[in-house]
Amino acid sequence: MSSAANPSLKTSRQLLLQLAAITKKFGPLIANDAIDLDLHKGEIVALLGENGAGKTTLMNILFGHYVADAGTVMVAGADGILAPLEPGAPQAALDAGIGMVHQHFALAENLSGLDNIVLGTEPIFRLRRDRTKARTKLAKLMAGSGLNVDLNQPVHKLTVGEKQRIEILKALYRDARLLVLDEPTAVLTPQEADSLFATLRQLAATGLSVIIIAHKLAEVLAVSHRIAVLRGGKKVGEMATDQADRRSIAELMVGRDVPVSRRSERAPGKPVIALRDVTIDRGDARRSLHGVNLMAREGEILGIAGVSGNGQAALAQLIAGLDRPDIGSVEIFGEKVTKFDAHQFAQNGIARIPEDRHHDGMVGSMTVAENIAIEDVRSRDYQKFGFLDFEAIRKRAEHAIVDYDVRCPGPDAPARLLSGGNIQKLILARVLEKSPKLILANQPSRGLDVGAQSEVHRRLLEAREGGAAVILISEDLDELLTLSDQIAVIHAGHVSAAIAAHDIDRSELGLMMAGQKKTDENTPRSGDPA
Amino acid sequence: MEIIDILLTANFWAAALRIATPLIFGVLGALICERAGVLNLGIEGIFTAGAMAGWMAVWLGAGLWGGVLFAALAGSFFGLIHAILTVPLGLSQHVSGIGVTLLATSLSYFTYRTALPDVSSPPRIIPFQPLDIPILSDLPFIGPALLSQTALTMLALVMVFVTGWVLYRTPLGLAIRAVGDNPSSVEAQGLSVYALRIGAVVAGSSLMALGGAFLTMSAFDAFFFGMINGRGWVCIALTVFASWRPGKALLGALLFGAFDAFQVRLQTEVGAFLPSQVFLMMPYLLSIAALIIVARKADYPKALLVPWFKGQR
Lengths: 530, 313
Ligand SMILES: Nc1ncnc2c1ncn2[C@@H]1O[C@H](COP(=O)(O)OP(=O)(O)O)[C@@H](O)[C@H]1O
Ligand SMILES: [Mg+2]
Fold this sequence. Notes:
The structure holds two protein chains of two kinds.
Chain A lengths: L14 E12 L2 E12 L3 E6 L5 H9 L6 E7 L5 E3 L5 H6 L2 E4 L11 H6 L13 H14 L14 H14 L4 E5 L7 H16 L3 E6 L2 H7 L2 E6 L2 E7 L5 H9 L16 E10 L8 E9 L3 E5 L6 H8 L7 E6 L2 E2 L5 H6 L2 E4 L3 H4 L7 H6 L9 E2 L2 E2 L1 H14 L16 H13 L5 E5 L7 H16 L3 E6 L2 H7 L2 E6 L2 E2 L3 E2 L5 H8 L17
Parallel strand pairs in A: 3-8, 3-9, 6-7, 7-8, 13-20, 13-21, 16-19, 19-20
Antiparallel strand pairs in A: 1-2, 1-4, 4-5, 9-10, 11-12, 11-14, 14-15, 17-18, 21-22, 21-23
Chain B lengths: L2 H6 L1 H26 L7 H17 L4 H23 L6 H23 L26 H6 L3 H19 L1 H11 L1 H5 L5 H27 L11 H11 L4 H25 L5 H20 L18
Helix pairs in contact in B: 2-7, 2-10, 2-11, 2-12, 3-4, 3-5, 3-10, 3-11, 4-5, 4-10, 7-8, 7-12, 8-10, 11-12, 11-13, 12-13
Bound molecules: adenosine-5'-diphosphate and magnesium ion.
Magnesium ion binds next to helix 1 of chain A.
């Protein structure tokens, strides 16, 4: 089955699901605004939209996690007649044959895959559990769908791909007629994603209906029959996939032209940070560096290309002042660093956009305003008589929300309510407003939609324009090639010499990332002051 | 007498098991609550309530098993209060637990004083008597150790097995273990997070109350103020020591019981040199030491202490 060809839809056009005028508000925020959506038997519909568009909310209403403020959900029974679904009851949704693969997996990690699948399917007050029937049924399902996974392993031992298979099997085990997948590819490698799509097409051919949420266009074009686009809580477009083209969908999603970022010509300034023969040995390869030489200069973006887990974390920790070299030295503005201390580094103008934005970039239970001020509570601007000046912090946050287009209920909303893209904008606002000398951007656009991604790129280029040095750690070759002036490749803790981006051969870069070509060969660094 | 000799007497192990019995009930109760994701610091008060309710029911003529039932009901009542405050309302489990302990303790004392305004020595009941189980008591060593135990100790041992069975062999136990790890996994499978958690806390609390009832209806024959004496808190620590497993809970309780029985015997041996308080301290010190060793690797139920609300993320 070729992944490029659109699967042809040979369904009876039997209506399975009808969402009518679904509206959901969270405080002043309208997450879903009168959304209609139909789904037929055996059809794959892609639900597209930027982060925060309301996709997950809509599916949570369908599945009964949330109750809609208005609108109805109708599902066809076995007789094909539409009947309203009881709101707010996942059990009712399950009974109606709706299965959901959650964006953040709904799995108990201490239980085995089998236990997670069977959970809730047997009468709860029973003296014993009978697993033989479940095993036979699952063996058949796995053979039929190719979703193979060791059911006896506790879930915390499984890879994300395997966890996802458990989630899908959960739905199939309950004989789901409709499968909802919320951003299933965000956590998968390209190979895993391809095999997931193959499975979905195969399942759809047997009559399963699928709603797949995504924000990567290419994937959706390959797998779906129909596309519905959400923006700002509204459905802004719907079309058959074979009549859709990428550019127009991207525009629908974002609501405007997606600007293509361009780097201007600019001569770099003085070195901001330099690593000299830095070795950090922490036993495991992901956290070690070996004899790394690196320099970032004012007004220059230095890209660090590499498959994640090759020492990027160690590099990022070092540059943020969270770790110290075992051997070698670090210089900031030509001065050798003696004290490795994150606060000291921040004082020197080093700002970071952390890799795991949810975990290291914000405190979910604190408000948007507090999160913006969090790194600068010692600054005079946020203090009054030695106490925090909440008025100033709020004002600052209100500006940031407008300037950086952070979509949230307001400065007092807890930050955990924000979607990934908006969290990233919040972090950008916090980082860039301080006019840092060096920005350490670690995977800054991973998992973001087109709009948010282009915003991140624009802001980084703007900072470069303003004379900041940027170290951009990324896996995305397109991102690296558009943004970077120089690119170095990291592999197994070794960092290659930096090469000017316009001299770079894409495929060579790919080979270096894969470790096929030596990374520490001493290619002269072009533009290096002699 | 040599130290080894102390450890080898059936008499010693009989005492250890007797001391362990209330702890077995308590740890089982605490681990059921915690497996579902709710820390129940109401335990100390629930012990008191169970001790008081069971004893009073018997004193009023309900019969010994009637007293046990009554104690369990008192436990589930206070468990329900804790569950409502912490599960649907999502309040701090620490604060609510301490509150329940204070409430249950004072209410028990209040009831006792109101019922018996001017007695100086507490009235006695006829407690559970040692059982003679035909085959068991004929076993070497174990027989004599079990021989002097009452029906409540047997019940505690049976409950270890029952709790283990329910948690690991039944759909209900599966759901309880799941809700303590990730409530969303339970809700996504159509089960009610609230019902499971409230149910677990109520059931766990009634077990805790049986631990209290054992004190007034088997170990002693009357209710005194301050008789629980921190046993509830010991159970909270033992739960971690037991890694939330019923079998290890039994082991932990027995270990503590053995320490305690040992210090009593040691006191009579070397009591001349050291103040008795040092010996009283010993089981607690040893359980702290055991905890330090075990708890560093403890695998807490992931959703323990984390409130969950429907329709929120
Ligand atoms: N439980 C909630 N409470 C408050 N706001 C929420 C909640 N769930 C979602 N939101 C808000 O609703 C909007 C839509 O979110 P979501 O449906 O998750 O978007 P998507 O899945 O399209 O990225 C976002 O602005 C988000 O912050
Ligand atoms: Mg989402």
